[in-house]
Amino acid sequence: MIHFSSRDKMPSFALSLGTTLVNKTGTWRYVRPLYRNLLPPCQEGCPAGEPVQGYLDLVRREAYRQAWELLVQANPFPAVCGRVCYHPCETACNRHFFDSSVKIHHLERFLGDLALEKGWELPPPSASKEAAFGKEIPGASREIAIVGSGPAGLSCAYFLARLGYRLTVFEALSAPGGMLASGIPEYRLPKEVLSGEISRLSLMGVKIVTGARFGKDLSLEDLGRFQAVFLAPGAPLAPPLQIPGEEGEGVLSGLDFLDQVNLPRGASPLQAPAAGSMPGHSQVLVIGGGNTAMDCARSARRLGAQVTVVYRKTRSQMPAIGEEVEDALQEGVTLLESTIPLRILREEGRVVALECKSLLTGEASTLPADLIVTAIGQSPDLSFLPGGAGSLKGLSIDQQGRVLDEDKGGAPRDPQGLLLESRTGSRPGSRPPFFAGGDAALSIPRRVVDAIASGKRGALGIYQLLESRESASESGPPGLTVAEYSFLNTVYFAKTPPTPLQRIAMEERLKSFREIERGYALQAAGQEALRCFSCGVCNSCDNCWLFCPDTAIARTPEGYVIAYDYCKGCGVCVRECPRGAMTMEEELNSGGAWLKEEMR
Amino acid sequence: MSHTTAEAKKSSPLKKVLMGNHAVSWGARLCRVKVISAYPITPQTQVVEMLSEMCAKGELDAKFIPVESEHSAMAALIGAASTGVRTFTATSSHGLLLMHEMIHWAAGARLPIVMAEVNRAIGPGWNIWADQGDSLSQRDTGWMQCYVESNQEVLDTIIQGYKIAETLMMPLMVVLDAFYLSHTYEPVEIPDQSLVDEYLPPYTPPQILDPAHPHAFGGLVPPEHYMEMRYKMQEALERARPVIEEADGEFGKIFGRSYGLVEPYRLEDAEAVLVTSATATGTARTVIDRFRNEGKKVGLLKIRLFRPFPTDLIRRYLHGKKRIGVLDRNIGFGAGGIFAQEVKAALCNYPERGPVLDYIAGLGGRDITPATISAILNDLLERKLPSPGQLRGHPPELPPQKPCKPGGVPPEGAGIVSPDGEMIWIGVRP
Amino acid sequence: MSVTIPGIPQEEYCYSGNVACPGCGAGLAMRYALKALGPKTILAITASCWSIIAGPFPYSNLKVPVLHTAFETGGSVASGIRAGLDVKGDRETVVVAWAGDGGTFDIGIQALSGAVERNEDFIYVCYDNEAYMNTGIQRSSATPFKAWTTTTPFHHPKGEPKKDMMAIMAAHKIPYAATATLAFPDDLVRKFKKARAIRGSRFIHILAPCPPGWKADPSETILLCRLAVESRLFPLYEVENGEKWTLTYSPQGTPVEEYLKKQGRFSHFSEDDIRLAQENVERRWKELCRQASLQEAS
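YS: structure for the whole thing
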């Protein structure tokens, strides 16, 4: 404040000598604006909890490596998931209320592919300041065993490796990847993409031992030297159709069929798994409506066969990803809805037809068939357990991958007495704690990202157990409010169609197992990333700063700072925040209550 | 009338026969004013015309803004003066009244604007002739006012005006009678530019609108400061006498002419004194001389500086005078002639004072002739006046009053008629 | 969509601590204008809310020199400042007259008209809050048809339409005249920058909501500006030399009702009133489009 010690010190006319910064207009305020971070619905929708808004924002700023590093904090396999995930993030995306969802999975793939192309490596755990859960690296030389190298097992291995643990992954088959390797055809997931992302784990020091089947090549005792074990043996068993004629050649499970298509060439019962290897008149029937069914159908088309999918419900009820069904139909697959198989007809042992019944008309029909592929579900092979598959009965797995005892009202079991011990009656503490995840532990539908999430949960559970970190909320995602569409001020967004991926021509598609979609180029990625609303998360759009009538919001390297000394609480900034990342809060010590009355 | 001073610098001034309005223009030109903003009004127009001409010819390096009104003229000068340049305008009568708001503003903003004001009557009905009503209605705005008597004094006072205004940071009005000066040609000595430059250095105010040193001028002033600022204005004018005297004295040294704040004439043993201003003074001097020749002890006091009002000088020159008459070419309705009010106020708290009579004459350009002055002097000498202590401590009875009839003549005792039939009235009965 | 607005300078020329009401549009208008004009600017602020907003003696919230002046003197004082700068040889500094709608549409129109007729070299800004707000919401000739003010009470609202100030300015054939408002700061800044680069008289008409005077929520200041533009009630355009009319934003044509119903000063509007308001907007919009396209055709 300027005080004049005498009249002589005063100017002779109304001349300003100082600024209005002396005038603390913040005292007028009875409500104050605040920045808040809400949980974007995409992130909430992602089982792996990918910080979608964060990495899209970085893509927008062309900070691709940072974007990828942020992404792989939540999911080690962006190139894989960007291709095969059913992207619940996009279902949750608020943009679908506006025009159409952001193509998050395309961007995820873009970053995954870019990392592979550039050969980006993850920073070594010891150098990393931002380990997977934002925690200090334990630094302990603890060794953890993972059984199964599918997405769950590798995910668990990855997160534990990032926390500084030493990992050994045991894989029963000759190559790692589990269902990713054997169950997904190349036109959806090229082998080099998968191997590229898996090899990054090896670079992190994760040891993968193939050809080591638990219960056969690997005993319970062999695992005794580990500080913890994560079981992710998958669900490789296909249930039978339980119809006459099922036994014998010409009827394959979907998994076996895909196995033949996917695994090293030459070992196929179909003799020539390469594209076009099936005679054009071959009739393949696929029974089922899930992603496996679609993969089988589309693979068979590539092999040259005529394909019909027989499904007991309607198209809209199919568990397969919508785009997969659409693509299958485009590729000439016939879909027979609301139809159940009755029996398989054979001539001289060879499959010749399938007799079915329409659930709509009740009429029976006969479909000619050379090969019948069943894709009606999968179940885990728990024969390695001392008590067999039945030993899992009555147990479930919680958010941290801990095994819960449903007989005891879902109480977590003593981690030292998990699973195997409880069934073998061993003394607690004599064996390492066991955690479980992946298809073996999940309820259906079982999908890649769910498996990755369960591996992550297992890693967290192991970490918490070994490092005596008790609270789940301490490490888990904070309990944020989800940013609803109604929180947004959408006038700042222009309707923009999604950026499509380029696809190879239809006639080219069926000639090979080449991947049909080409990923985004940099420009397309940037363009699509711009479509992100950044729901509930400030992305420094400047609106609050720009619209403040009192110049009371400053931009700093750390973000916006509200000068509460001057903010009058008009609320323009909150109103004009496009993404609901600001809110108004009543002043507790409100000297402005009278004003509120007045305004009313 | 100027006093010629012996010490005048040697120079070869140009002598021209100029109308008063052109003397104004020449004064402004010699002061190297930088921005002129004016609007035409009779009887001021030649001032503006000549200045535009001077600017157009490049004789005067100034920007002339041909505004759309007097209000804008003064506003534009306020803007220009705030950037630190010397500014000038001229107006009259209704123009001055339209300016009134900005007249106050210029003073409050402490801008040393100099303006020539041609005294003209105010309508209705329309009257373009001499009358002091316009300038005197700006009495309390903070502007200094000089009432001049000759075209030479017009020119000289403009030059002195800038010196005074820029020293005190208060605006100044040079007031000249319509037609008697504005349109009357007189020989005028136009001083050397170099001497004027020596007398009047360039205008360099301490505070100007300058993006390099940004300040706000003239914003909201709350009660805790407003009064101090008004005090400072009053202080500037109250203590202005030495500044004005010095400016006048220095002018005399350089140019050989000075005028004083007031001018006494044959006051030494005068028993009755007539107080005058502006061109009526010249007429009055000749009548005073005649009365003196007749042995009547009369004298004259010309008031040149009306604002700040030279109270000290009024008291000194009217000390002990038994009869004081004030000639007013104006009327403050309901209170009488304005110069008279001022003289009365100046003497009010002064013990050695005589009664003051208030003669109103020459409104709306009616001539103030020797006969008019004679009638006033005779009345002043002869009128029966109440003597001090006559009421012996009792408050006066309220005199009976009848409302004036519409169109009526002044009530008996309030008016006198000059020998040539001109009406003079006494503003407030003694 | 990213909304980081290119072309909005970072520099601030308004200090906090101004005494505008919360959500004041006039305060924001100045902030944007000065961002565009930069430090070499001298303001002449006529009697208006801004005489108060800038702060009392001995303080000022502005980082540029200001001459506060009388109500009707925007055009004249700015002319004088310009003249002063010109004779000092300062051609770089821009002079801005800053007035409200009362000071522009009403009491100051004479000085403004005089100044722009002389093609005085300054930018005249009218921040229009559509009534005498500083004195407590009295009608001005900028007040919209049928709006409430304290001198046009609800039972006898204003019977005349808003004066078309832009048309008056265009009729003076000044080099540049433009409308702008706060929801479109990029447009506003661009126009100020364009105006700064032009010599002669420039006029910028800014619609600046007054939350108390409009009986509106202070947080909706920007929203109201946007609705005014999108409904075509306050189109964004510019007029060069009184001849070249150009729309600078293509409004969506949302119903005027959306704008009206946000403001208490229109709360007495009947359905007929709303319809009439809509019709008036459409008529004026057509006229504007005609002027813009005529120029395109020629």
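YS: worth flagging: The mean pLDDT of chain C is 95.
IM: good catch. Also Residues 146 and 269 of chain C are 8 Å apart (CA to CA).
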